[in-house]
């Protein structure tokens, strides 16, 4: 979507966003996300987009179509209705509605830059499938009209010039007494606020029965929002609405103050959950192998659909949820904040720009980081080198290490687990290369016992593949592997995750540590919901499982403790007060009877998850924000790893970030230290 001239961002660049958007919509239709057989005639070029982009454009199309079709349904008793699409670009809305037989008494007006409208008119005339549907009545050349059919008018006007727009629409036959739907899909945000506000107010004042659908970005100040803003600034198409209207309440007030009597707003997570039927959610989720849940949910939380109306009888409320449970969430009450400081590390932390990796403390002052996707050799790829952080005299020294024959064995896996079993041995379980392949099994990592005395650049890690016979339970990713004790023996508890075949797993396996044999141990109690991207911590010989992403890709807020009993283990739910906000892609640690949940992604609050501290004796749960004000870059605390240093009560966040929709990849450039001693002594 887009409009404008000097009163907006650079018009040519803004038009470029429209062309890019049309290509994405075309790719989304080609993969079966949306049904649109007309778009390819209007776009011409083809370019296949990534699954994350397909999902983003799917939910955009779904929200707009939902509102437009609801308007047509609710006004079908009227003899005439109108749709005015502002900054329509090369959109195929008219042709789809006409083909579906929904335009019995509706005229569609589309407005865009004169050169865009002329290009589109030429394409329609040249393409039989389009011109046959619309029926050319030869009305072009009259004023701003570039193409005219009985129920379709295409106008070339600059939206930011309101008087010109008003005159052109009047000449084209727009009737202010007829129920009219205004549609603005990522358009108004490129205009100066005074001009977009004037357009919103003009629509309310001039039309006696009117509805408005707005689809745009929001939440500019959190880390994802900062990356999003920067992307559009670099394209010379700044998102201008965000300064005055950064969130849902501000947009709602904007419309109510400009003359609209009813207004409701949903972010796209809420729309997907509340206004998309379950079978349709499942159909979409199964279309392509997909493993970028964090970025999908973050993209959806930064876009909204707004509907406003005036003079409509009965009132028009297409965003009323069919679900009984409330979809959105209010603000989270916080007990304070924890300052984040860039880690005082000597050169070499560049190898830690990655996500989906694992970091483990292999001796009191040595952290080994493996795998993930990030920067290596100046390019983005699955990382094959190992990274060592070594603390000496209060300062972290960093080094990368890559064994010569490591490429053959270390397959660049993501979302695996690493369990340190002794001072010289760690076990890698599962992980994936691509979302369609996860048969990676287990590996030993061997390193020198005296590594804490070495320079990080001197450290050597040896990889040993394990026999496939021991591996069926290891063919998963986004799972957890946690040490437990049963009858004095050590086991690794492998739980949850997902596989190439199953989008979410709820099974578990006990791996006897000395011989690495999978052992059956009875487990009773209420079985937790299947989940992946949860956290798991050893505690009192058992395991604490918290959060995760469950079936239907919904975050979970449950906490479970798997505790040792006389003849096996038993699950028990851990009650917290208040209940924790559902989240996933966080990390966790236990310290002095408290469970610390670090970062992650949640859907139910405009704030970003920080640090949650749960007292395991009382169940008291306190939330703290992570204050990244002193960092020179946005801190994304998801897809990260973290290491807790109990003596200093210091938490080290390593890596994190991901592909921010079509806005580029953001990877935290260096480790971040959180000093928790203040909040841990308070509670």
TrEMBL record:
Coiled-coil positions: none
Residue numbers spanned by region Disordered: 1-25
MF terms (GO), sorted A to Z: tRNA methyltransferase activity
EC class name: transferase
Pathway: tRNA modification; wybutosine-tRNA(Phe) biosynthesis
Highest taxon, organism lineage: Eukaryota
Catalysed transformations (reactions): 7-[(3S)-(3-amino-3-methoxycarbonyl)propyl]wyosine(37) in tRNA(Phe) + S-adenosyl-L-methionine + CO2 = wybutosine(37) in tRNA(Phe) + S-adenosyl-L-homocysteine + 2 H(+); 7-[(3S)-3-amino-3-carboxypropyl]wyosine(37) in tRNA(Phe) + S-adenosyl-L-methionine = 7-[(3S)-(3-amino-3-methoxycarbonyl)propyl]wyosine(37) in tRNA(Phe) + S-adenosyl-L-homocysteine
Swiss-Prot/TrEMBL keywords: Methyltransferase, S-adenosyl-L-methionine, Transferase, tRNA processing
A GO BP entry: tRNA methylation
Catalytic activity, EC: 2.1.1.290, 2.3.1.231
One family name in Pfam for this protein: LCM
SUPFAM superfamilies tied to this protein: Galactose oxidase, central domain, S-adenosyl-L-methionine-dependent methyltransferases
Family per similarity comment: Belongs to the methyltransferase superfamily. LCMT family.
Record's subunit section: Interacts with RNF144B/IBRDC2.
Biological role: Probable S-adenosyl-L-methionine-dependent methyltransferase that acts as a component of the wybutosine biosynthesis pathway. Wybutosine is a hyper modified guanosine with a tricyclic base found at the 3'-position adjacent to the anticodon of eukaryotic phenylalanine tRNA. May methylate the carboxyl group of leucine residues to form alpha-leucine ester residues.
UniProt-recorded name of the protein: tRNA wybutosine-synthesizing protein 4
Gene name of the record: Lcmt2
């Amino acid at each position: 979507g887009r409009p404008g001239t000097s009163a907006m961002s650079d018009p040519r660049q803004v038009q470029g966003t429209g062309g890019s958007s049309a290509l994405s919509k075309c790719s989304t239709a080609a993969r079966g996300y949306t049904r649109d057989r007309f778009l390819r005639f209007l776009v011409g070029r083809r370019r296949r987009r990534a699954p994350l982009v397909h999902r983003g454009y799917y939910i955009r199309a779904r929200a707009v179509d939902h509102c437009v079709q609801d308007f047509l349904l609710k006004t079908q008793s009227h003899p005439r209705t109108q749709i005015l699409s502002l900054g329509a670009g090369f959109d195929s809305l008219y042709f789809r509605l006409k083909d579906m037989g929904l335009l019995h008494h509706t005229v569609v007006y589309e407005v865009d830059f004169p050169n865009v409208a002329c290009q589109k008119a030429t394409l329609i005339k040249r393409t039989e499938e389009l011109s046959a549907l619309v029926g050319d009545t030869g009305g072009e050349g009259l004023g701003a009209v570039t193409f005219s059919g009985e129920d379709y008018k295409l106008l070339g006007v600059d939206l930011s010039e309101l008087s010109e727009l008003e005159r052109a629409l009047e000449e084209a036959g727009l009737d202010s007494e007829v129920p009219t739907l205004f549609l603005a899909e990522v358009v108004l945000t490129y205009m100066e606020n005074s001009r977009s506000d004037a357009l919103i107010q003009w629509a309310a004042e001039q039309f006696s029965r009117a509805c408005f659908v707005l689809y745009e970005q929001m939440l500019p100040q959190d880390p994802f929002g900062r990356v999003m803003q920067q992307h559009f600034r670099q394209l010379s198409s700044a998102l201008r609405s965000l300064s005055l209207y950064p969130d849902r309440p501000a947009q709602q007030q904007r419309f109510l103050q400009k003359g609209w009597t009813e207004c409701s707003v949903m972010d796209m997570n809420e729309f997907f959950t509340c206004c998309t039927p379950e079978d349709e959610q499942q159909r979409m989720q199964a279309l392509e192998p997909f493993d970028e849940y964090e970025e999908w949910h973050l993209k959806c939380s930064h876009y909204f659909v707004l509907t406003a109306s005036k003079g409509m009888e009965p009132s028009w409320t297409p965003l009323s949820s069919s679900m009984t449970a409330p979809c959105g969430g209010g603000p989270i009450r916080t007990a304070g904040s924890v300052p984040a400081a860039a880690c005082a590390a000597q050169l070499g932390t560049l190898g830690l720009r990655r996500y989906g990796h694992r970091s483990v403390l292999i001796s009191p002052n040595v952290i080994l980081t493996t795998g993930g996707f990030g920067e290596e050799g100046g390019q983005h790829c699955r990382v094959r080198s190992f990274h060592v952080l070594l603390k000496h005299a209060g300062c972290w020294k960093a080094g990368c290490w890559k064994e010569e024959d490591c490429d053959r064995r270390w397959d660049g896996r993501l979302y695996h687990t690493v369990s340190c079993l002794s001072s010289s041995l760690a076990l890698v379980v599962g992980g994936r290369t691509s979302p369609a392949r996860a048969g990676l099994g287990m590996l030993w990592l061997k390193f020198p016992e005296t590594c804490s005395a070495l320079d990080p650049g001197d450290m050597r890690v040896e990889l040993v593949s394990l026999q496939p016979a021991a591996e069926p339970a290891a063919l998963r990713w986004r799972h957890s592997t946690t040490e437990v004790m049963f009858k004095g023996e050590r086991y690794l508890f492998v739980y949850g995750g997902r596989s190439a075949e199953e989008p979410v797993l709820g099974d578990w396996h006990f791996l006897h540590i000395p011989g690495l044999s999978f052992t059956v141990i009875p487990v009773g109690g209420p079985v937790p919901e299947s989940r992946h991207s949860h956290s798991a911590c050893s505690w009192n010989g058992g395991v604490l499982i918290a959060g995760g992403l469950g079936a239907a890709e919904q975050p979970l807020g449950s906490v479970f403790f798997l505790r040792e009993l006389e003849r096996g283990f038993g699950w028990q739910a851990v009650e917290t007060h208040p209940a924790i906000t559902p989240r996933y892609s966080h990390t966790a640690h236990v310290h002095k009877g408290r469970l610390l949940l670090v970062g992650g992604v949640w859907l139910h609050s405009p704030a970003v998850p920080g640090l949650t501290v749960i007292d395991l004796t009382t169940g008291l749960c306190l939330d703290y924000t992570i204050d990244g004000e002193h960092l020179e870059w946005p801190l994304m605390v998801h897809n990260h790893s973290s290491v807790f240093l109990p003596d200093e009560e210091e938490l080290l966040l390593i890596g994190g970030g991901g592909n921010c929709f079509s806005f580029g990849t953001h990877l935290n450039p260096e480790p971040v230290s959180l000093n928790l001693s203040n909040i841990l002594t308070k509670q």
